[in-house]
Amino acid sequence: MNHIYGMTESDIKNYFVSIGEKPYRSTQIIEWLYRKNAKSFAEMTNIKKDLRPRLAEDLKFDDLELVRKQESKDGTIKFLFRLADMNLIETVLMTHDYGYSVCVTTEVGCNMGCQFCASGLKKKKRNLETYEIVLQILKVSELTGLRVSHIVVMGIGEPFDNYENVMKFLEIVNNPFGLEIGQRHMTVSTCGIVPKIYEYADFPLQVNLAISLHASNNKTRDILMPINKAYKIEELIEAIRYYIDKTNRRVTIEYILIENVNDSIAAANELADLLRGLNVYINLIPYNEVLENPYKRSPLENRQRFYDALKKRGLNVTLRREQGSDIDAACGQLRSKEMKKYE
Ligand code: SAH
Asked: What is the pTM assigned to this prediction?
């Protein structure tokens, strides 16, 4: 049995060919699924009547169960969903002046072990299947009645540790007969799995890349992010350079500011040196404190000082306002609280 929400247009085409049907039916199916929100083949009136039971037998409609919904004062909504195997995942909807953006989860738990992150506290149980990632977008639209215009693959999990399923997901939500989310409206964020950055540079869709850098040297990054022991900061920068040369796209550098860890003026200057000459945009993010570790948010004056130092060096930088901190929107926080209740 195939999961219908996990099938790309070519998967559906191949399926039709395999049962001796015309492949053009794939676009009809995609329209039903993503434009008309059909929940069964019985509703698909332009599909031959005698074909519908066969489709229902071969292709499964899955669903996500809403466990909890938390709404922040700034309009950010966090959803906790239960998967068919009872695992819990989080999805976040953010409101921007340019539209609605959804942050999706790609794995149950995460193995990257970033010290500041609540998600890494629970080891990865499994990858999400493509359909489970697609369903997060569908459910959020369905529950809010909003049209999702942007996607960030920045929820729980390391997308490049579940590469195939995530790339399929991007292809499905981009399909012009379906959700048609623009390629440039989608961003995948990685902690720095270097070989996958090279591979992603060749991915046919023009989707964006964000790198969770969070440190300006190996010493600090080794402590914060164990992935740095496998791929040193210099190798990461080389991969970013390759990606930019290959795709001509600007890369977002994410840098969370943690008090007395990575927020000094010296660190800002070191970061400026590291990124010199690269077409990047630096997103400075206030750290969201979590109960499980001792790290503290860098005070506003330090954040401002860091920002000013980068600006002075001519870098493209923004000091991000935080969203949803009153609803535990920091990665993994809702899930880890909720899991405690369910365990
Ligand atoms: N694994 C991917 C995507 C998921 S994490 C990655 O590392 O990029 C999404 C972003 O949230 C990353 O930049 C991560 O470092 C950051 N993050 C994790 N915990 C955080 C916290 N408590 N406060 C602020 N940002 C956090």
From this structure: 0.94
Query: Within 6 Å (CB) of ligand 1, which residues are found?
Result: 112, 114, 116-117, 154, 158, 189-191, 212, 254, 256, 285, 287-288, 290, 330-331
Q: pLDDT class for 119, splitting at 50, 70, 90?
A: confident
pLDDT of residue 326: 59
N-to-C CA span, the chain: 31
Give the residue, by CA position, lying nearest to ligand 1 atom 21: 288
Q: Which two tokens stand for residue 236?
A: 């990461």
Average pLDDT in the 114-127 region?
86
Beta-carbon contacts of 211 under 8 Å, excluding residues fewer than 6 positions away, are 189, 190, 192, 197, 236, 240, 251, 252, 253, 254
Summarised one tens digit per residue, pLDDT across range 53-100 is 999 999 999 999 999 999 988 889 999 999 999 999 999 999 999 999
- In the structure, what pLDDT confidence band is assigned to residue 341 with cuts at 50, 70 and 90? very low
What is the whole-number distance in angstroms between the Cα of residue 331 and the centre of ligand 1? 6
CA gap 38, 36 in Å, rounded? 6
Query: Bridge partners of 89?
Result: 81
C-beta separation of 80 from 332 below 8 A: no
Angle at the Cα of 109 (from 165 to 283), degrees rounded to 5?
A: 80
Return the pLDDT at 342: 40
User: For residue 156, which atom of ligand 1 is closest to its CA?
Assistant: 4
User: Is residue 191 among the annotated active site residues?
Assistant: no
- The token duo for 18 is 């395999």
Q: What's the CA-to-centroid distance between 122 and ligand 1, angstroms?
A: 15
Give the pLDDT of residue 122: 72
